[in-house]
Amino acid sequence: MPKISAVIIAKNEEKNIARCIRSLQNVADEVLVLDNGSTDKTVELAKDLNARVETTEWKGYSETKNHGNNLAQFDYILSIDADEALSMDLAKSIVEVKENLNENTAYQFNRLTNYCGSWIRHCGWYPDTKLRLWHRKMGIWKGDIHEEIVLDKSVVLKHLNGDLLHYSYYTKADHYKQADKFTTLTAKDAFEKGKKASVLKLVFAPIVKFIKSYFLQMGFLDGGAGFQVCRISAYATFMKYQKLRNLHKNS
Fold this sequence. Notes:
The protein has 251 residues and is α/β, with parallel strands linked by helices. The chain is built from seven helices and eleven strands.
């Protein structure tokens, strides 16, 4: 039977790490937590659940994840973030295909996000399909902001039933904080590529974003949580272009 290494990169994830590891215990043959300097109980909790813990400095999303994959004991990698967990259906699906794992097949599955206690099934946030199980020799992480696994062209991609549960934000403040972080990164990336943001884009892009996510992608069906998601997404769009304009102005 092929064996799986579940690889988790983490920093100060004491709220999430135990749930993540427990969801893997009947699926993965090794749980590797690559810690980036946690100052809370992340490492202690991981070790208490018999996870193997290694430490590293932060090297960016892709490089850090690739480093973790290289440290894994087994070739089949199940990549999961600390704020994620396998649903029971997804865990069952992985176990069912485990004996048939091979280098030329990789697996993806849907991710369902929990936002301040509510599951978001619209707003453009679901199914949010993610590729997370593959042979490490056949694919690597690439990209600094929205990292993704780039597979060898010979690999066939299959979809598994069940959801990857994503516990993204516990409070609205968490969402605003993350939006500020990522808009800074995306604005910097756009600036380095020579992109610009006109006044029209600054004004109308956030409006278009809200209309798309709340109405066209039916965010209204997610109730108050859906409205909040769409509102902050529109705000993030505004901030991304505002920060890009500031970078050009200051240069």
